[in-house]
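protien #1 (seq + structre)
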Amino acid sequence: MTRVTDGIPLSRLDLDTLLPYLDLHLVGATNGVRLFKAARVSWAGTPYEEEFERLRQEIGQERAFLKRLIRSLGHRPGVVKMAAARALSVVAEFDPLNPRRRKATAGAQLELEALQSLLKGKEALWSTLLALGPEAPAATGDAVLDRSALVQLLDASRRQQDTVARIMRQTAPARFLRS
């Protein structure tokens, strides 16, 4: 993560509050990568498999961005939190909402709704960080939160939500309507 000229000044950030918040989002992102992997497995052999794989890769890249951001603030994610994140992500890989990977069940619907919730939380993260922005650009070398990168991440979160919502709408009749 490099210092940027159009960003949020480091000197203005309350790191005692911000860093635990970012850590918790990193835990969520760790689980999100695994949950999207589980969704790809659930939807294997359908037109949606590739979309879930693309979303998993994007969320993995966003997780890496968040981890770099945390490190650029001079912080290392807590060992206990990250151990918990790894443990929870193993549970997520078993897909507790849809363990049998059936597409025409309430579990499949809940799986899609859970993915939407994760994406909504990620949208809130980027939106919150953008809300910290100054009226005028920070002095060169003083900023760590790149506004243009945050805007791109926010837009990606919304696009990802639209993708999952579309899949949910297109697949709902197979779950809830009798043939």
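ok now protien #2
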Amino acid sequence: MLKNKKTSVLLPIGIIAILIIGIIFGSRLFKNNLFTVMKVPDFELTDQNNQKISNKDMLGKVYLVEFFFSKCPTICPVMNSNMKVIMKEINNPKFGIISISIDSYNDTPEVLKQHATKIGVTSANWHFLTGDRTYIGKLADSFNIYVGDEEEDGEGLNHSGMIALVDEEGNIRCRFDDHKMPILYYSGLNYSDAAGKIPKFTGKFHPDRDFLIEDIKSLLK
């Protein structure tokens, strides 16, 4: 009888242990299932508080990188809004955002500080960066995120709405699409359809924002 009682006690303990191991392994497996695109390019720029911020400063944090400018009347407000939702949802000191201005002539640290205040940024981990325009253009090329050539008339302030996800070790990561291909970067835009095929400034769908929240939380575990 004593042996059977011990067995009946040990059995649920064993099941619980297996479940815990499964949860831990599952989270690690999901991290590994995020594709490693490349190492984040080296950067060092000045933020809205006149502080130098580099990729080395961001080691140990999961963070997002976007290119934008404060006077942008089209996609930037949408991207800023989606970033704010992500920042609020994650609410973790080990998460940050890097927003790099492509309008260095206007976006001084003082202007970027005003911009951060205007859109309601409260996190100390959201850095709006500025610096030499040629340097920033080359940096965007290193990220493989489109930014218009500053020497082309009317093109210098064109940019993509794509966002890079960087893990704690400084690797750009991404999930796979339905065809098992890495998406490389996430969209910061809104869409008129749930599948994220038709961009629309006032669209109520933002699938990549939801993907980012899920993937950031996984990387932070």
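The first strand starts at residue 35 and ends at 39.
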